[in-house]
Task: inverse folding
């Protein structure tokens, strides 16, 4: 594992951008890693731009604030790109070379030719995941879009495991002391009403995480993380 | 609910025993069992101050160096609250302003619990800072906090505190002050505080905030100091974010302020307000008036100087230095810029560059002698700041002038609420070493050897 991943997530209000980042971050911490999150949004409302930043490391993390130069970008809604619903324009601003771009869309998007060229120049690896579709298919609602994306990014990067993500979901909905904003609390109660029991809620979320993970695996998106892991194992064997 | 209460016979408001049984298990509409219960109504009045009354007084030495600590993951506002809880504070007054509001709200909770004896919301910051002056003069330990525009509104009374020799602790959760208005972090207000004659510390994180506040009270009240202490932190980055803070148990507190130890007598029926306001000569424009005022200012700044030994004693120095010896470059920073510098140093190490770090904790008094020694052999000094005006770079440059041949980069800077991308700092280090032109810092903000003297002159004119 590289020493540091800086992840910028952009989406719109109500999609669980902050919740998604919280679950990824918790999964990393549960596995003994270090992680911090910084949420960023204006007035909290549906469909308004939201960004959240997750830092992941195997060493203590000192620095604070937004991430300007991410290794990984996750776009929760195609409107972030098509409508510019984002605090960061263009959506890939500051993406480091050989970075990862995971976008929630049913198939590749037609990007402006300048944007496509700039992404190519920095050798960005583009992944299009039908996250909302997966959420609807598996959970019967679109509110688990964030879970599909977290599953896929876990598979692409090898940062975490399905089990660790599942445990983080449990911590999030059953744990004590997690402070959510008013809007998120309201959405939580909507989600809870949809699923009769919290256990069912957790199971469905975990199923969507797994669907996202499997989709990525099936399409061979984990090649890079697998290669990195192999190299790590080889290096360890040599040493 | 305690066991004994449950065993009691329940009665309705008329005094009849209640015999009907409650349903076995209540559930909410989703079918989950409801486990929370209303607080039992009881006639036994619990003293809300009970815990506070049990606090034991310990010496500052025990509190700071010996008392066992446990680690908690809390916000900066909460760490300020916990510091005040253990600091035996008599009075706290403030007027709310983002991002200070949470802190003072939490101090209100402490007042409710009896840890702070008096507490009220002032009308605005001028009134607040004036009231703090009166309270401190009356001999009690005072805590206040403000931010950005509040700091500037309260600045006239704040600037008069040192001259009146008023021990107090003011926390500044720095934010934007200039128009266009913003509530985001930017520590330009510190530059206004530096020349008031007060002691000023700058906290990097939640732990610093906790420690600096408690130690600030003790340093502030030393007889040969008798000055207010300002503890600045960068708003939101520290106040609203969580970090690990190692804290002593809640059951101990610092000794109370002993006002008779101060350098000037407290105000009471026999001691009118400080002599300098009462004595006629000061009110007149004559040689005596000038002389009294001049002597008084000298004494204030001499007291700032005398605080050094206590900062060394309690805080372990005005600065900390890491890996400075033989480094390719040194980062000098205070507050949140230190946190960013730590990550920049890691990135530089990946490029094979060894970069040292000097973290300035005390801005007043300023660690001049320490910097001269540490920077004597430095080749490149980079000073990242969360403000436009480079107040730290100016102080560092002035301190080491003639003592170091280092090239000094006054930057990078962010302001108006931006986070500082650590990559900007790395750029200045690599650019400074290779002589490449910086994309972030104008040539005019680079001082020291091998620099265009015209550019330096331009910089000096513009800072």
Result:
């Amino acid at each position: 594992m590289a020493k540091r991943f800086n992840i910028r997530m952009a989406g719109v209000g109500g999609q669980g951008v902050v919740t998604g980042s919280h679950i990824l971050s918790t999964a990393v911490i549960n596995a003994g890693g270090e992680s911090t999150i910084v949420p960023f949004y204006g007035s909290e409302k549906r469909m308004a731009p939201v960004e959240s930043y997750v830092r992941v490391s195997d060493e203590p993390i000192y620095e604070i604030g937004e991430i300007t130069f991410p290794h990984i970008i996750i776009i929760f809604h195609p409107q972030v790109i098509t409508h510019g619903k984002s605090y960061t324009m263009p959506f890939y601003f500051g993406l480091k070379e050989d970075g990862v771009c995971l976008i929630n869309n049913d198939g590749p998007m037609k990007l402006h030719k300048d944007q496509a060229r700039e992404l190519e120049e920095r050798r960005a690896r583009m992944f299009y995941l039908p996250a909302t579709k997966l959420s609807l298919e598996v959970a019967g609602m679109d509110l688990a879009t964030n879970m599909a994306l977290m599953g896929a990014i876990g598979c692409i990067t090898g940062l975490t495991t399905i089990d660790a993500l599942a445990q983080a979901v449990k911590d999030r909905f059953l744990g004590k002391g997690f402070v959510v904003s008013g809007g998120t609390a309201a959405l939580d109660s909507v989600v809870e009403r949809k699923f009769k029991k919290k256990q069912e809620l957790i199971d469905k979320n975990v199923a969507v995480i797994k669907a996202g993970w499997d989709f990525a695996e099936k399409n061979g998106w984990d090649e890079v993380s697998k290669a990195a892991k192999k190299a790590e194992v080889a290096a360890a064997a040599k040493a | 609910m305690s066991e004994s209460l449950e065993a009691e016979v329940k009665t309705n408001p008329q005094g009849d025993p209640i015999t009907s049984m409650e349903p076995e298990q209540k559930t909410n509409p989703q079918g989950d069992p409801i486990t929370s219960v209303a607080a039992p109504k009881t006639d036994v009045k619990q003293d809300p101050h009970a815990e506070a009354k049990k606090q034991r007084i310990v010496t500052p030495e025990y509190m700071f160096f010996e008392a066992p600590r446990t680690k908690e993951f809390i916000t900066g506002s909460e760490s300020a609250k916990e510091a005040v809880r253990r600091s035996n504070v008599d009075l706290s007054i403030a007027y709310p302003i983002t991002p200070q509001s949470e802190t003072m709200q939490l101090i209100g909770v402490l007042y409710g619990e009896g840890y702070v004896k008096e507490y009220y919301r002032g009308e605005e910051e001028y009134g607040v800072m004036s009231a703090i002056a009166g309270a401190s003069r009356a001999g009690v330990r005072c805590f206040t906090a403000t931010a950005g525009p509040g700091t500037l509104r309260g600045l006239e009374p704040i600037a008069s505190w040192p001259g009146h020799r008023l021990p107090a602790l003011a926390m500044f959760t720095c934010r934007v002050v200039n128009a266009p208005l913003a509530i985001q972090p930017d520590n330009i207000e510190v530059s206004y505080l530096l020349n008031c004659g007060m002691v000023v510390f700058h906290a990097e994180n939640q732990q610093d905030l906790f420690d600096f506040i408690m130690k600030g009270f003790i340093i502030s009240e030393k007889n040969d100091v008798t000055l207010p202490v300002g503890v600045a932190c960068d708003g939101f980055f520290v106040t609203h974010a969580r970090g690990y803070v190692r804290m002593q148990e809640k059951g101990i507190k610092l000794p109370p302020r002993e006002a008779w130890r101060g350098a000037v007598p407290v105000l009471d029926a026999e001691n009118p307000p400080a002599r300098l306001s009462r004595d006629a000569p000061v009110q007149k424009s004559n040689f005596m008036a000038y002389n009294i005022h001049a002597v008084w200012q000298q004494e204030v700044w001499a007291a700032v100087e005398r605080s050094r030994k206590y900062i060394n004693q309690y805080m372990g120095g005005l600065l900390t230095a890491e890996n400075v010896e033989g480094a390719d470059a040194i980062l000098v920073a205070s507050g949140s810029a230190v946190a960013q510098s730590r990550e920049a140093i890691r990135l530089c190490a990946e490029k094979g560059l060894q970069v040292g770090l000097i973290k300035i904790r005390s801005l007043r008094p300023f660690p001049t002698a320490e910097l001269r020694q540490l920077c004597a052999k430095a080749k490149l000094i980079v000073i990242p700041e969360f403000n436009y005006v480079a107040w730290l770079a100016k102080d560092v440059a002035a301190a080491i002038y003639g003592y170091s041949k280092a090239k000094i980069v006054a930057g990078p800077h962010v302001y108006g609420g931006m986070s500082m991308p650590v990559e900007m700092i790395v750029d200045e280090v690599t650019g400074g070493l290779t002589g490449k032109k910086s994309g972030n810092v104008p040539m005019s903000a680079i001082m020291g050897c091998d620099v265009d003297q015209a550019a330096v002159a331009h910089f000096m004119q513009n800072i």
In short: Strands of chain A lie at 4-12, 34-41, 49-57, 72-75, 100-104, 125-129.
